[in-house]
Amino acid sequence: MQIASLAEVGVTNVSTSDTIDSTFAALQRAQLARRGSFTLEARIAQLDQLRDSIKRHESNIIAACAADFRKPAPEVKLTELLPVLQEIRHTKKHLRKWMRPKRVAASVGVLGTKSYVRPEPKGVCLIIAPWNYPLNLALGPLVSALAAGNGAIIKPSEMTPHTSKVIANIVAETFPPDLVSVIEGDAAVAQKLLALPFDHIFFTGSPAVGKVVMEAAATNLSSVTLELGGKSPTIVGPDANIKRAARNIVWGKFANNGQTCIAPDHVFVHVNIADQFNEALKTEIGRVYGKTPEAQKSTADYCRIVNRRHFQRVSNLIDDAKNKGARVFEGGVTDAEENFIAPTLISNVSSDMDISREELFGPILPVIEFDDIDLVIKKINDNPKPLALYIFDKNESFATDIIERTSSGAVGVNLTVVHFLHPGLPFGGVNNSGIGAAHGEYGFRAFSHEKALMEDKHSLMHLLFPPYTAWVRRLIEAAVRILG
Prior knowledge:
Aldehyde Dehydrogenase, Chain A, domain 2; 484 residues; 2 domains
């Protein structure tokens, strides 16, 4: 299906500083004018319109993702459409409760007062979306921003231009431009946007660029949510269900061609089951994507690397590993004309290889044998905290021990990636893998300022005010002694 250009639907590709400034100023003015009037009903109406527009554009979204990196239609529905539509449904169901001021009981020191925490919009927000899940990670945060009562500018990725155009079309037909606008462009456009005093910035991308975003936000003291990444480890214990582990790991790793921030980056497998597990991985890859590189290239179920630059980066990782003694025991076949890299399994991995240091973000799975879980935990803790950690074993105490002795954004036990689809769970990292959380109430709170509100009813605090007579001093001494 042909994707309409922005010009065909009357959307301008905004890239000049003047237009960026004027768009931002219009959102600021409108946000001030909407204060107090962007009610629950108004927010739900905007979410309904977004849902309806996404559904109308479903075929365009599928075609755009196919044009950008041959993403299979079922995978688009599962990983691009479902998360956003589910987020809208979940938000509408709970928004009244989230918006309601929460009563806070008075402490002894402030008896006679009434206190509340009142969520209010932060203001004008910037959403910088990545290319790997271009629709999901642009419109998912928008749901939270709107639910919290904010205006927003979305900067989609220039690496997926067809999907970016569809996002622009959806936004243009759904929202007034002083509520939500899309600004397309490259890194220079992102830099111009980051120079503006946004009230909140929601960025999804690499830790390296996340540091740049945080530095830019610091100039204006803008709050940030950073959804980053890292090397998410997977541990397959001695009592794991091997077939189930292989099935979950192959899906979590090779969906979207491995271009997933929470994909298993590498696998530690217990030496007692390593041979069986490796064979199970190969069998599962063959079952899902085809037993030969030719079959894998021809299947409609296997995505591609997004562009030539990233194809070369992932290819170089394989070559570096082989040159340093790694063994490719499945896959390794590449085709630069199609940005195709077959599902690749690698053993004999050493610490001097690039695949041991860099986030892979591609269809490469290093498999590392272990016999001492303490050494595995030490390796995990010696590296930056990952966005996700996956554990496969029938023994609950095995998983509990690892969870208690490591730090990560999330943990999946006997599953991979699926936690992203749970709207009731916070989605976010720790330190290098992210700051803040998204989804559901956690996303609403990320885009909200939680304002403290206290009202005096019949408190006695005024008895402690100056002048500090002997009587007042005795009262203060008593207060410190009793309450301190």
